[in-house]
Write a structure and sequence with these properties.
seven-stranded parallel sheet; alpha/beta; about 230 residues; 7 strands; single chain; globular
Amino acid sequence: MSERPTALVTGASRGVGAAVARAFAPTHHIILGGRDRDALSALAAELPGARAWPVELTSVTEADVAGIDRLDVLVHSAGLTRLGRIGDLPASVWRETMELNLFAVAELTRLLLPALRRARGHVVCVNSGAGQRANPGWAAYSASKFALRSFADALRLEEPELRVTTVYPGRIDTDMQRGVREQEHGAYEPEKYLTAQSVARAIHAACTAGPDAHLTELTLRPSAGPLT
């Protein structure tokens, strides 16, 4: 069996997830999780030792994770943002947001706990500035990220042999952010945002800080531009 560690990254077809996969590829076998089979296959072809893992994260099963016996790093990067004021948000938006941003994270982690325990692995939850404070129009997304923060905190206490890191980035130059700015009816200003590569490097640093270090929380903000 190869001694090279394995990292599974969700949301790996684009944005932060793809950047994280590229950051870990020189040192890890990479499992690329996401919905877009073509994009995952293209990235897998680019990264030696990577394989595509097309999956619907909101309905993941034991069969989907069969064969993953040992896992050193699990990065939860998949997510969605639906904006709107509380008075305008139907229950369907709350359910859709919680399904991917929280429930899918909890279930995939549960299914992979045996593999993570074998490796004394590291779980990274890509959260948001919205997981530290709520703003008007962001109620559903912020609630899902506050809940994700609680999930990570509880996991850290329940699984003391694992490392669990929550990362709180500000706005990032990604396709997802373009969608957010469209919902906000605002201009897209990438020069004011973090790059996906910067966030990925921070996640990689948290996971490679050394056996004596457990970086539990990491907040990143653009050096110029909005905090959220």
